[in-house]
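Example for tutorial group B:
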């Protein structure tokens, strides 16, 4: 059974100005690298559907969903927060990005795909229950997780977030939902300046000091995440896959390299095989320097799909 590769052409039409780091080129950089490495050939390619309002409402308030829809401009840009803007294509792109997580969930739970990688933007993990921010509008993984919980009746889902930034949106959505365990690492004292004090008992937050490097990252995973995951026994795992902790990415200073992303993905795959029938859905979050983004994402996907290309 092949893993799924899910994206949509509209994800490239959303843009926030030429100087904005969350650029449309991110999608093509990852796609091209997966193609060059022969990884796409080992996957089934799927087009992301639009998430429905009912699906979005599993993770966001209806008034918030309507407010994002109503803010969409017909030309130019509308600023949603200091870092986050909508152009005329943003709303459709955001619906497809969340829809990708829903389709990935459907395919993996139905046994039609072993795992899935969603190469989509806008990203999602800073989007809260009723607030956009940090380049995010809808929390894609959160929509997928609630779909798995509420439509398929799964009881325990782990969300792994290795983006360099704390996933404040995911924490906001899941802090009172003990069906979900969030394990995250992030760089301390950078945007969004949260995470040091977890908002719920169902989260393992590890703030890593600037420049702490591969060793500290791997120690956090081994000593903090893995014991919690063993106890929790997730039935499915979602990944907020942000690659902005790479040492060549100026957005953070954790100093990670491709091998770290391959290594952490292998640890996640092992937990998934042990407890979750191997079920993993991974959604792109950050990663802004195109070359290291593409290399790190390819290292991640190669392990995720279990191919020795
Ligand atoms: Zn990030």
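The residue assignment follows.
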């Amino acid at each position: 059974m092949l893993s799924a590769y899910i994206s949509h052409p509209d994800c490239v039409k959303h843009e926030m100005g030429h100087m904005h780091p969350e650029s449309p080129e991110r999608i093509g950089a990852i796609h091209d690298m997966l193609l060059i490495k022969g990884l796409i050939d080992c996957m089934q390619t799927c087009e992301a559907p639009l998430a429905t309002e009912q699906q979005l409402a599993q993770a966001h308030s209806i008034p918030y969903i309507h407010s994002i829809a109503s803010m969409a401009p017909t030309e130019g840009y509308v600023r949603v927060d200091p870092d986050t803007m909508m152009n005329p294509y943003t709303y459709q792109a955001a619906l497809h990005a969340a829809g990708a997580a829903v389709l990935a969930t459907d395919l993996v739970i139905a046994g039609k795909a072993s795992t899935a990688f969603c190469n989509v933007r806008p990203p999602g993990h800073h989007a809260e229950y009723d607030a956009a921010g940090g380049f995010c509008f809808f929390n894609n993984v959160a929509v997928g997780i609630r779909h798995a919980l509420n439509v398929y009746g799964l009881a325990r889902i782990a969300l792994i977030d290795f983006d360099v930034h704390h996933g404040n949106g995911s924490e906001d959505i899941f802090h009172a939902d003990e069906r979900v365990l969030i394990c995250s690492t992030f760089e301390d004292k950078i945007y969004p300046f949260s995470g040091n004090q977890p908002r719920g008992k169902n989260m393992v937050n590890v703030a890593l000091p600037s420049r702490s490097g591969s060793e500290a990252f791997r120690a956090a995973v081994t000593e903090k995440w893995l014991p919690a995951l063993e106890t929790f026994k997730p039935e499915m795992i979602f990944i907020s896959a942000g690659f902005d902790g790479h040492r060549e990415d100026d957005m953070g200073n954790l100093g990670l390299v491709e091998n770290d992303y391959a290594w952490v993905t292998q640890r996640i795959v092992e937990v998934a095989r042990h407890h979750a029938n191997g079920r993993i859905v991974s959604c792109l979050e950050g990663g802004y320097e195109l070359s290291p983004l593409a290399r790190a994402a390819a290292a991640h996907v190669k392990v995720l799909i279990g191919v020795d290309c």
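The chain is about 40% helix and 15% strand. Compare this with the pattern of hydrophobic and polar residues in the output above.
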